[in-house]
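Minutes, project check-in

Agenda point 3 was the complex the collaborators sent over. CS summarized: two entities, 307 residues total, and the question is how they sit relative to each other. Sequences were read into the notes so everyone works from the same version.
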Amino acid sequence: MIHVPAPDPFTVFGLPRTLDVDEKALEARYLRLSRECHPDLHRSADTGDCVAVLQRSAEINDAWKILRDPWQRARALMELLSPGVLDRNKKLDPAFLGEALELAEEVAFADQTAAGNLRVRLQAAITLDWTAVGKALGAGDFDAAAMCFHASHYHRKALQDLDRKS
Amino acid sequence: MAYSDKVLDHYQNPRNVGSLDKNDPNVGTGVVGAPECGDVMKLQIRVDDSGKIVDAKFKTYGCGSAIASSSLATEWLKGTSVDTAAQIKNTQIVEELSLPPVKIHCSVLAEDAIKAAIEDWRKKRAASQATGAGAGTEVRS
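CS then shared the predicted structure for the full assembly.
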């Protein structure tokens, strides 16, 4: 089962549960929330308050880590909207998996020129995956969104491997 | 996490890496994935008329345990009958490779790949029998 911390990151930040967020506004909100409950500002408070502030501060940091990363945010969002949906949709089309395997091989054997082309292709694929996840979520088709999410992981991993090579 | 000697051996000298022609009517192909870790495993078997697996190949993109599990699976498959192969359980792979609990899913993936390959071969055979399997009958996957 995919773990999403409680309270969930969207609630911690007081944001609606949406896939796309304004990243600048998100960071500004993170800084404001952090300032508001910085432990140093609450030293004079009694012990009970101190514990509450520390806990809130930890929640804000955990939520920030998830929300700032688009794919972690997507993952948390899907689990919140339809708990267990990622586990239920782990069986991907064998034809797609075959392509993923070929992609991994391409990455492994790519020389510098090939790597450049491959990077562009992978980035394009990841952008398409993101759009597909958004579209499926918008249509309320959580199963399809989960499958697109899983498929995208192969593209993201291939890109990571490619970046690690250079 | 330390890998067992057997895992390392399969990882460093994987057996039966490669591909068989997936359009060959006697070849069964199974491709399975574990999207949470981004692993893919392709396992193929070639079966003779008596139902014996005469060749097995694999290609795996994943961690050492996933590679070792599929490599070991191809070793076990070669020379055995399809019916016996269908009985292979992931727990046997776990035992042979001394896989730790966090890597058990790799053995599950190998079992799934074996089952998918057998299923693919069975489907092809059923299709060729249904069409009469006469000389020159083309079977497409």
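Noted in discussion: Helices of chain A lie at 9-13, 23-36, 47-68, 70-81, 85-88, 94-109, 112-138, 142-165.
Follow-up: revisit at the next meeting once the mutant set is ready.
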